[in-house]
Amino acid sequence: MKKVEAIIRKSKFSAVKKALHDVGVNFFTYWDVTGQGNEKEGHVYRGVSYSTSDIQRRFLSIVVNDDFEEITVKTIIEAASTKEVGDGKIFVSDIKEAYRIRTGEKGGDTLN
Predict the structure, then answer these.
(1) Which of 7, 8, 28, 75 could form a disulfide with 62 if both were Cys (CB 3.0 to 4.6 A apart)?
(2) Which domains occur in the chain, in start order?
(3) Which residues pair with 33 in a beta bridge?
């Protein structure tokens, strides 16, 4: 099993969520986060300069079976990309085991 963690623009969350559902990734956790990014320039709106050093993003945590890792990552990249600085990052790590709390069963079937 793999854990796919993605930090994406909040404005792209709906598109990413729909795309993940379309490929069969129906369960994931997400929350709003604030982070520091590489973007150095501020934005000007109506003559007022705003700092972009603190960036509002959405963090997704998705656990998938090994055979779903590639399609999950590809789907997030395609749905979240604007081709601009600040699109986000994806991290993939191994999951040793998963348990279903209700039944106590373990393994990859707990993800279904």
Answers:
(1) 28
(2) 2-111 (3.30.70.120)
(3) 57
The whole-angstrom separation of Cα 40 and Cα 103 is 50
The answer to whether residue 52 scores a pLDDT higher than 60 is no
This prediction has a pTM of: 0.83
Q: Residue 76: enclosing H or E segment and its boundaries?
A: helix 69-80
89 within 8 A of 58, measured Cβ to Cβ: no
Q: Which residues does 48 contact at the CB level (< 8 Å), separation at least 6?
A: none
Token code pair at residue 56: 């509002």
- Arithmetic mean of pLDDT, 91-95: 97
